[in-house]
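Forwarding these from the shared drive since the link keeps breaking.
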Amino acid sequence: MTEMKIALAHDYLNQMGGAERVVLEFHEIFGDAPLFTSIYDKSVMPEEFAAMDIRTSFMQKLPLVFKYFKLYLLLYPLAFRGFNLSAFDVVLSSTTAFAKGVRKRRGALHFCYCNTPARFIWMFEHYMQRERYPAFFKTLLKMLTIPLRWWDRSAARDVDFFIANSKNVAERIKKIYKRDSVIIYPPVDTQKYLPIETIEPYYLVVSRLNTYKRIDIVIKAFNELGLPLKIIGEGPDRGNLEKLAKANIEFLGRLSDQEIQKYFAGCRAFVFPGEEDFGITPLEAMSCGRPVLAYAKGGALETVVDGKTGVLFHEQTKEAIIQAVKKLAGLNLDRAQIRAQAEKFDVSVFRAQLKEFIEDKCQKK
């Protein structure tokens, strides 16, 4: 791969999550490759990104774009189409929406690591059902998904190879884009998330505080249980969630990776109430030997082994979470077995599989 010029692409860098951790691993594998993205907010991104060659689009200079990035919805396709990647032999994009739309030169190969086809385009009702926007605004956004669906399918046709982050997402890629994909699970740094001896009685949530994450049902459940719950993360729904919470629930806000690791290692159990495309945080908890209480949909079905590494609950209700907490209390789980499950998704596995796949396709080309 040394003779190949590689470009990386990612939707936007204005919040840190699982998709952005994947981008950091891209950089670890292909350290000299520049990263093309629509916007980059240095103030909220980890310092690891400062060492990267990040090239932003015209959107970087738009007024209040970091705060109101969703309102610029129709400009993202133009931003990625506007990048000149004619000097590159390989494009590796990480996307939930727009980065797959970059234009490669003739003869170049585009590998798209797809975290999911865009939820707000293809699962609009589910995505918006708990958002507190006025009805007229939701109607306007739904109308905008019509041209975006056309664009998204058109962009997908220019991708040479799709890489799905889970079986769950591979099925969506097949259904929406009519394309096959290879599955390479996202990376978990199991050497950073290690077990400790002292376990405390608190339960833990680590999440962006958005309505669709369903942190509200966790709060309602622990309001009733009276057990200590710690919530790490920021987001637009924090104010509403704080109003809902009783005194046994503590909001810790945004913390460093080192601080989060300590909370993972010390918790009684990690609670994962949303339907996610994959979800890295349950594996970070399991890497620390801690069990997970997870909603039995999406990526959790591929990571959490019910009765072995945690408990799956089948309804997004406070009652289901309460029953899961009670069921967990009656189990005697082996922390070594829990960690062994996480190690199947270790960062070393991700790096080896991704590099091997790209090199194999380039050699055949």
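-- next protein --
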Amino acid sequence: MYLRQCKALLVLLIGVFATLVALNNMTDYGSNFQFVQHVLSMDTTFEGNQLRWRAFHQPWLHHLAYAVIMASETAVAILCSYGAWVLWGQRHTEAAVFNKSKAIATYGLVLGIVLWFGGFMTVGAEWFLMWQSPSWNGQQPAFRFIVVIFATLIFLHQQEPVKE
């Protein structure tokens, strides 16, 4: 049972993390909006970059992208927090029941990976060349988030030890 408790706790911590990230972005909109604006505008990539045609210069697209990011963070927070609650409630059940209770947490964790790997590492870092920016490069934090979330997802789905 201790492994089930640990699984629920780690999923909850991802939920708390995503909650704080979403709240920070909503309550201090301007700080991280600048990040999104600079990445999408590609205004701090290498001089003479031939790929700047990819840039979005329309402010409404910057706000839309930021809204999608915050909505995704909020969804991760809700799914992981609720998923942890469900896991905690099923911690004393048989393995098949407990395994079925992992679905909501799994959706939350996978959405977190989609957001930080798909959104920040793939779209931000590679499409908009965020990696070229000395001041608006979020690859390292995104990578840390991805690793922690992925490790939690793997741990959540590890098979339970056989009782002897």
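Helices lie at 2-27, 29-41, 59-89, 95-100, 103-127, 139-156. The chain is about 75% helix and 0% strand.

- D.
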